[in-house]
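Technical appendix A lists one of the benchmark inputs used to test multi-chain prediction within the project. The record comprises three sequence entries:
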Amino acid sequence: MVDFLIFIVFIIGVFFIGQHIQKKHCASLEIREQALLYMPTVVGRKVFEDSEVEKAWLVHGAVVVSGDYFKMVYAGLIKFFGGRIRAYESLLDRSRREALLRMKESAAADGAHMVVNVRFETAKIGSMVGNQQGTGMFEMLVYGTAIRMKSQ
Amino acid sequence: MKFVARQLTGNVNVSPGGEGKPFLKGLFVFCALFFVVYFVLILLVDGLITYVPERVDRALAGVFAQHIKTPSSWEPQRERLEGVLDGLLETYDGPQYDFRVDILENEQMNALAFPGGNIVLTSTLVESLTSENELAMILGHELSHYRQHDHLRALGRMAVFMGLMTVWSAGTNSNPLGSYVVNSISTFDLKYSRRQERLADDYGLTFLITRYQHAGGAVGVFEKLKKDYEAEERIPFVQFFSTHPSMENRIQHLRQLIRENDYQERDQIPLIFELPELPANSDSDPGS
Amino acid sequence: MIVTNIETVPGHTIVEHYGIVQGSTVRAKHVGVDCVAGCQNTFGGELKGYSQLLEESRSEAVSRMMQQAQQMGANAIVNVRFGTSSITQGASELLAYGTAVRVE
């Protein structure tokens, strides 16, 4: 019973820490996304602008994130009844946005005007607790071709 | 064709609503469901146990049988214990096992009934006995456990539990939540065992009356146990003890039984055990 | 909303583009489906429960992507790609992404 109480307190603690991290991250994402909103990113290969291309190079952004114990237990519980696992939806979504942003930031730092042929990759790279499922570790990779136009 | 920057508001990729509330709700429903299924199955198993044929019962007990070995220097005392047990077995009408009494070196007063007919008394308990009647009460109590198929019930409960855990872990791939549900269930289980203990007390008294025609020693031995329980903390057997109803309640219950049935309390047959000290190093492993 | 997985929308011209839109969801089926799938896994064959799970998730991911495009004022999404990744046993993430455009 004592074990159970410790576990509950631990989970509640993890929950609030996780919520805090998420809030902070979302706030930072919004500011940085706003700053890079001017840069076109497209999934296709076509360069949508009419001017001549000066340079093209590969850019990527990656981030490795981990779930936490609250998310793991939450997922275990939802899996019993079925449905959307919101805890992981928000984690994966904001890490994907982070990876996309890192790619755009690295492209912008080298003077790119746009990024074309963007691709998303998600890889589960391991787990936390031995060979059990654990809390999950994921790598989000976003890559594409940065394009720099000749200045008119 | 030109690029137009558009800011998104809100996030459609995250389901609406918080995480805390659905989590608590899910946890509550899950626990409730688990307990209900568990207790329904337990009741079912308990009801069915009465219909288990004796042959199956003995075969099962054989599989889970455990033998505690008495240190060889205590063999004469062990044989005297067995003599008293043989006397009680004359009136025993439960499933037949190869009954055997053993002494386990331990500082706590305790008696246990292992599957397969192995009754184990701790050395402290054996040394504290002053009469044959007291011993008969203890042995009668343990014999009643066999008579009530309590070991089968325990096995049944374990089987139900393992079954549920298997289903649960097959579905969710060993979720840590499961192990915590396990822990909380074992506490709920105590009440159930207490009823068995009380029944065993009742039968133990009946054994005593049939053998000696009076109830002397029945209450005495429980008072000794009670004193021992209150004396000190005991860590290794804590869980076992907590399954017994409080000693005070049991003593009162026995007194009431004796009063209601007008049992006499006459002189007891003195019987004192002196266990020779064991050599310090021959710490014979009880093999539990 | 027109959705294609090629560069253009045939028969239309793209007039404006708004950048990447994406939709994703993480879903799981209840424990009964997991158990049945676990048994079927031994003998092989189609896991109907999980087929349905991924189908549902995929359409949800697409509809979320469309919602983003709608917010931007787009009327088509070109170059749509799908991605699937496993989160834990029996739960998977479905991702759909593409370029939001306005066609005429």
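The first strand of chain C starts at residue 2 and ends at 3. Chain C touches chain B at residues 13-19, 22-25, 31-32, 34-35, 38, 64, 67-68, 71-73, 88-90 (CB under 8 Å). Comparable benchmark entries are summarised in Table A2.
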